[in-house]
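#onboarding

Welcome to the new folks! Below is a worked example of what a typical request in this channel looks like: someone posts a single protein sequence, and someone else replies with the predicted structure as tokens. Don't worry about understanding the tokens yet, we'll cover that in week two.

Example request:
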Amino acid sequence: MSSPAVQSVLQQRFGFPALRPGQGEVIEALLAGRSALAVFPTGGGKSLCYQLPALLVDGVTLVVSPLIALMKDQIDALSARDIPAARLDSSLDGEAYRQVWRDLEAGSLRLLYVAPERFGNERFLSRLRRVPIGLMAIDEAHCISEWGHNFRPDYLKLARLARQLEVPRVVALTATATPRVVEQIGEAFGIAPGDRVVTGFHRPNLFLRATAVAAADRQAHLVSRLRHLPPGPAVVYVTLQHTAEKVAERLVAEGFDAVAYHAGMAADDRARVQDRFMASDATIVVATIAFGMGIDKANIRHVLHYNLPKALENYAQEIGRAGRDGEPSTCELLACRDDAVTLANFSYGDTPTPEAVAGLVHELLSLGEQFSVSRYDLSSRHDIRQLVVSTLLTYLELEGVLAATAPFYATYKFQPHRSSREILAALPAEQGAFVRRVLSLSKKAKVWFTLDIDAAAEKVRAHRGAVVEAMEGLAQQGHLTLKVSGLRHGYRLVATDVRPASLAASLSERFAAAELRDLARIDDVIGLATGQRCLTAALLAYFGEELPGPCGHCDRCAGEPISPLPEATPQRFGADDEAMVAAVRGEGHEALGSPRQLARFLCGLPSPAVGRARLRKHPRFGALRRVPFDEVLAFVGG
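Example response:
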């Protein structure tokens, strides 16, 4: 039972007659000053677990969310209920950004939404420390776990950040967490076992089906299935952008109201697709996983996976978008073994070469006791994807080799809105003298002035924080518009007795283990699609939930025939392939110097070095994309 205060806010501000399962336990824990974890299925009401307490605790509720679209939708819904909420993200113009800070510092905002990467901004952290925070809500909390399906280094640091900001309580929220991930989230945020609320993943209104198909038959099967399903909004999930376009075109040609959606489209085009889908009772969106997060459409009748999802966590989250109104809905997985090759190759593409890891480690350990680095530059120099560089640096922090200091921007650009004389006249004498010295060190281009913060701090004999504070103050007061660039991350070398070779070897082993976990997740998806067991029971067991018996609402329980999964379309190596590899090697590209780099190139997996050398348009890029990466690696001598 919830308290009278909770019931009052629930009914008067949110218009709900009662809480859903699990919400009461989470909310009451937070109001008692304890941190909590909410593992609810998609559509299970996770957002209310922090939106309602935000109106009852002192201080702002800081919501960490990975998607701008999700933030915008939630803020619009809160505003409609007269609940003051805002977001800080890259889409805001200067005036909107300043208004958010004015409202925040005046105490008039109840919720502030930010992306996890925002905490890498020293300006943001500096100002945030002056704002009372009552609650931190972390959406997609499984991202903090290496054992989860979507590990993100920026998430891993949130627990430490919450302690540094002295946040009194945290609520972590996710729709997909295995028991191991639940344990890791709970330990990271100090959440007591009794406050880890897992409501279960069983959705009785979803009919699950897994159908084995050959690659050549997949489009025809999709068309046939959609013709026989009851009408209603549908989402067809695919892996690649060009597949989304191709399948949508086929469906349109067959007379369906279908449209593609993927991250390669312009933002306005994506928004138009989303608006069209939200307003329609018949539109089919053929989409990559870029579509769906934060889509609050209750009557999605069908979710079909044209391609295999990369993990059962993804599958559970995506089918969870169907039938959120409680009405019967269908979810079908088209199982094709060819997809396993594509998914596995993506995983291989993320794994850095041992040589690249060793080079990066040697560079970091040679930079002295205090240093700063650009992750972009490290990525480019060592041919390691930028996200993987971030992960490697996080590993070094976890191993006690490095300690992160404040991230900062090397360069500040500003555009004055009034003359220097007017700006200085508006400041107290001592502050004006300091600002005049700082501004005199800037260099003017056509419109913008550029200021090297570190160089300026050295010349005026002040801490860089004082220079940053001065520039931030001028922007706050509307004297100028401020832009920052050249993000650098500061570190302190903690362990001085490190052996670089053994450290690099252990890190390479860690990345190799992550690669194996990704491959195992793909096998789990294939195992679900080919198994004889009740699909619902098998999926729930993966998340630690047991059904007392068969679900009665899947194709296995319905007695539908289970076809064997066809083998992947074979592609053999021949003399032409040997000649092609020899020709590519003969071109002498430095970016393809190691066997793993060459194998990635032939499988169509981009890397920083390939991008820098402009090899993505090379006629042989992706020539062997249908061949398993490990076979290509062996073929080229890896």
